[in-house]
Structure formats: structure tokens, C-alpha cells
UniProtKB/TrEMBL annotation, chain A:
Gene3D superfamilies (UniProt xref): Aconitase, domain 3
GO biological process: L-leucine biosynthetic process
Cofactor remark: Binds 1 [4Fe-4S] cluster per subunit.
Keyword field: 4Fe-4S, Amino-acid biosynthesis, Branched-chain amino acid biosynthesis, Iron, Iron-sulfur, Leucine biosynthesis, Lyase, Metal-binding
SUBUNIT field: Heterodimer of LeuC and LeuD.
EC number: 4.2.1.33
Binding residue positions for [4Fe-4S] cluster: 349, 409, 412
InterPro entries: 3-IsopropMal_deHydase_lsu (IPR004430), Acnase/IPM_dHydase_lsu_aba_1/3 (IPR015931), Acoase/IPM_deHydtase_lsu_aba (IPR001030), Aconitase_4Fe-4S_BS (IPR018136), Aconitase_4Fe-4S_dom (IPR036008), IPM_dehydratase_rel_enz (IPR050067), IPMI_cat (IPR033941)
Pathway recorded for this protein: Amino-acid biosynthesis; L-leucine biosynthesis; L-leucine from 3-methyl-2-oxobutanoate: step 2/4
Species in which this protein is naturally found: Rhodalgimonas zhirmunskyi
Catalytic activity of the protein: (2R,3S)-3-isopropylmalate = (2S)-2-isopropylmalate
Protein name per UniProt: 3-isopropylmalate dehydratase large subunit
HAMAP family: LeuC_type1
Role according to the record: Catalyzes the isomerization between 2-isopropylmalate and 3-isopropylmalate, via the formation of 2-isopropylmaleate.
Automatic annotation (TrEMBL), chain B:
Keywords: Amino-acid biosynthesis, Branched-chain amino acid biosynthesis, Leucine biosynthesis, Lyase
Quaternary state and interactors: Heterodimer of LeuC and LeuD.
Family per record: Belongs to the LeuD family. LeuD type 1 subfamily.
Protein name: 3-isopropylmalate dehydratase small subunit
Amino acid sequence: MSPKTLYDKIWDAHLVDEQADGTCLLYIDRHLVHEVTSPQAFEGLRLTHRKVHAPDKTIAVPDHNVPTTQGRENPEQMTEDSRIQVQALDTNAKEFGIHYYPVSDVRQGIVHIVGPEQGWTLPGMTVVCGDSHTATHGAFGALAHGIGTSEVEHVLATQTLIQKKSKNMKVEITGKLKPGVTAKDITLAVIGKTGTAGGTGYVIEYCGEAIRDLSMEGRMTVCNMAIEGGARAGLIAPDETTFEYVKGRPHAPKGAQWETALEWWKTLYSDDDAQWDKVVTLKGEEIEPVVTWGTSPEDVLPIGATVPAPEDFEGGKVEAARRSLDYMGLKPGTPLSEIKIDAVFIGSCTNGRIEDLREVAKVVKGKKVAEGVRAMIVPGSGLVRAQAEEEGLADIFAEAGFEWRLAGCSMCLAMNPDQLAPGERCASTSNRNFEGRQGYKGRTHLMSPAMAAAAAVTGHLTDVRELS
Amino acid sequence: MEKFEKLTGIAAPMPLVNIDTDMIIPKQFLKTIKRSGLGVHAFAEMRYDQEGNENPDFVLNKPAYRESKIIVAGDNFGCGSSREHAPWALADFGIKCVISTSFADIFFNNCFKNGILPIVLPQEDIDKLMDDAERGANAVVTVDLENQVITGPDGGEVKFEVDAFKKHCLLNGLDDIGLTMEKAPAIEAFEATASQARPWV
Ligand code: SF4
């Protein structure tokens, strides 16, 4: 048998049909649905009198639009257009008989946090969602990628997706990370190296000692941003860390089925002599805590660096850098650590899990959010929130002066009322620093939870390792 | 879906690299449960100021380009989110073809589902087409999908590649859900085997 990558193995196990030109029909094991990209798909089913093919493999949760303030069960809290979308999801979930976690359910949260938390996401599965950060689920060794609304409708109707196979790319992070360096720094550093188009046409498998050492939370952070690197999906081979995390989750297999599953999951790795179309290697020891300075996730630099000048770049990037610097209100040569901030956002499907909150708590314990800084923590799910309260983290946040919110996407994309004002600058643990992403004319610097926490207490971008 | 055979129209130059989906359609316009009517919001934050007045410097606001049907763009067009609102907005504006050196994957796929043809060309061809597109009202370009040829205002021709299946669907305006449903027996057979092999799924 010819050697295979992990991607090849999962692909082959889900192939329904293959045409001579390589167009394939791939079976989908889990379809996650949220309120923003699904209404037109359900409407499409209604218009064509089609049903949801596998309702028991379809899971819906509202997250993008929902308010994160108390009393949100009251629909009055939402703007009319948001309310219409959330109510459409309520109705569609009921009418088509799919699994559903409404805002009143403690298990509600960001779709990419809820899936793994409930054990819907398992190794070796194919997972799709009308959301590009579906890549997150690749942390389990599941082939997971974002799809558009027409494809959502296609999966709802047929439980399959028309696909062509991507190329294989290996991203290896060797050695150990230095203290203060986290999964978020890894994933940003990779994008800084490959660029936002470096992964286009590829599925990335992350491997190497530094990846193996990560918890499931950290692995999800890494895979989450595969899409920012242009890749359709990111994967990490499942191992004991994965099995440990999955075991006992509500929808994970139990008993004899667990054993059968485990047996197969243990075969899910890239063979030693597998062929790669592209290989990128980073040394774990060389990765520094990083932040972004511009309006593309590839605009990454170590916190000790200075703001670059447009002339430092080539081709179309010169103009893009000029535009970014103007938008961000930054002067070339300014040390990154002197950039003052107005707001801090801790949350999102990149960094809204319990481990992220623990890191924040470690940094801010006994300290105060700097004068004039608005700082918000939005847990990724109701269960993350409950656990943080149980562990006493919520008290630490409150004493430090953070707002402690209910679960949702919140200021990651600012579709709900959580937004930056024009010109406001934010240290954010989310994944996109595009123009206007966190609010019209808002300015975003991406970084790890520990770094965002450090910025919150000093009021400027800060190397977390320099905080006592 | 509308058929795409031959398209002749003004090509607008957008040389900026990494034009992302938030630029193509900002999130405040995603709160719709329909597919139509998004054209007025396409490129909203570049196209209008905060009061909603048109920014006269933005290419699609210039008299020569208001009716553009084609965009010639910088690298990595459509990066960012999976929102199909991006191609919906472009199509509703009247853009039926985008030409660049590279596209983000999901955006690229979404285009085909909405009658938009995204074309990938090498940098030198893009440079030439970008020059053509700079000619304002004279930037008339023809895209012939059947023969896979772009003809510039001077009659110069550029060949392009396109996936055969996607071309077939676009030329014939085919709905791929219908096509897949014809494969129901294969899907059912797969499900029967998979439920034996992986009963926990
Ligand atoms: S948290 Fe942000 S990136 Fe993640 S699903 Fe929500 S909006 Fe998308």
C-alpha cells in the first residue's frame, strides 16, 4: 500500500464518488450550523421541497449575533435584523428536526467551541460549517473546513460535499516553546512566515514536538487560524491528549464502541514516508510572543520589534502596508511595545476556552486594568463560563476590572452591540485584524490571551514576560 | 442559476492585494435572510463615508466604472470569511467575473455557485489586464468561457484555465444539488458501509 498522509486517510474513508477529472463527492459526518450563513440555505430547501438528509448529524447554535449581556433571552435586547436571524434559526432547527442549543441553554456558545465540548467533533470525521473557522476542529484529527451558504444547502440536502482534493502541506514546529510563548504565537508566527495566501490550495498538518506538547485547547487555537494562512483545513494527528479530551463527552462513543473507535483513531497519522507538496519548519525555541501591526493576519512581528515601513515590502504589499499603517494610525519605527490601547477583547473561537481564561487570570491576578482601558472577557460557551466561575477565575477578572460576559462571538466580528468606536485600538485574542472587523474604523492588534492580559494592565502592547 | 457563456463589459482595476471578504461586504450587511439586494453594499466601507456619501476616489464610484462587470484584482482576492454574501453582493452589483493571480479557496468556490467566474492568471497577464482596466470607459474586455479566452480592448488575447466540471455547471447554469441527488444510491450505499465500520458516527 502506498504511504498516506493523515489527510489522505480521512479523505479516502469518506469518498462516495470520484469522477475522471478528480471531482469527488465526500461524505460529511458532522454539519454545524449558525444563524448568519444558514437562513438562505434552509429557505432553499423549502423552495425545492427538500428535507435535511441526516438531521441527527446536524447541529445548530446561534452565536454570531447574540448579545453577551445579561437578560438576553429577552428578544428586545437584539436589533430587529439580528432577532430575525436568530428566530429563523429557532424555527429552522425545529422544523427540520436538527440538534439545537438556544441561548437559554447553558451549552450554547460559539459553534466551534460547542462542537468539541459536546463530543460532536471526533477524530477521523469530516466536519463542515458555514464558517471559515471550522478549521478549528482539525485539532482532533478531523477534516474540517468552512463552506459557503450554497454548500450548506448542499450538505443539508445530501450530507455530501463536492470537492477536489487539496495538496498536502506539513508545518513542523520542532523543539520546545520558551516560557510566555503559546499556541497563538505559533499559529501567528506560521502565518507571518507563509503569508495569508501561503496555504491556498493546501490542507496543513501541524506536527512536531511543540505541537505534541500542546493541550487540546492549544491545538484548537493553532488549527483555528489555518484559514488565515489560506489553507482550507488544518490537521493535527490524534494522540493520547486527544483521546483523553474526548472520552466521556456527551456525544463521544461509549463502552465497546469506544474501543472500536479508539482502534481506528490510532491509525490516523501520516505514514513516515508520506509525500508532502510543501514543508515549512519553524523552531519552537525561536518563536517569540508576537502581535500584529497591520490589517492582515500576516502582518506579524515579535513584540520587541518596531512598526515597519511600506518600503520594507515588495510588490503590491508596499501599497497594502501604506494603507494598513494609515488605517492603524501607526508611524514606522515606533516600538510595538509603545502602542497605547483603548480596549481589550478576550474571547472568540480562537481563544475563548477555559485554558485561555486561566492564562489571563494568571497575568491579571491582583492587578488592575489600566485607567481608561475598556476590557472585556467573553467566554466561548456557557459551560466555559460556568467552569471559570467555579474555578474562581471570574472573581479575579471582576476584581481586576474586566467585564465578564455571556458566551458568543461578540467583538470578534462585532455583529452584536460589542464594537469598537472609530479610531479605538484594541488588543484582541481573535483571529482577524481586517479593516472594520471589530467596528467601523476600529483598530485591531491580534495576540495571545496572556499578551492581551498584559496589555490590559499596562495600557499598551506589552511583552508578557516583562510583567512581574 | 443564470448561465455564463460570454461576458463583455468594463473591467475595473483593483490592484490592492488581500482584498478580504470584510471589505467586499462588511458584516453589518450579513444580517439578512435573503440572497438579493446586497449590491448597494458591495465594498461599502471603501465606497461610502460614514454618512453614506459616495467616496469619489473609489474605482466603482468613478463614472467610467459604475457599470463594471469585471474586476481585475491584486493577489489573494476574497480572503477571510466563508460568507457567500461576498459573491452575492458582487453579482447583485453586476460583477460576473473577477481576475487575479490568486483567490481564497472558499470565496473561489462560492463564486461558481453564483454565476461568477473567478479566473486565475500569472502575474504578467494580470499586469497587462490591469493596464487595460486603467483605461476607463475604454476598458472593455470580453471573457469567453467556452473557449477560455479573454480579449482585451486592443484585441489581445489571454488564455485561461478552468476546472472542467465547474465550467460545465456555469455554462449550463446547473444546480449542483440536483446533480448530487442523482447519486442518492451511491450515498446510501456509502452510509450502509460506514454505519458498520464506524457505528459511533
Ligand atoms: S468567534 Fe469570530 S471567528 Fe469564531 S466563529 Fe465567531 S465570528 Fe467567526
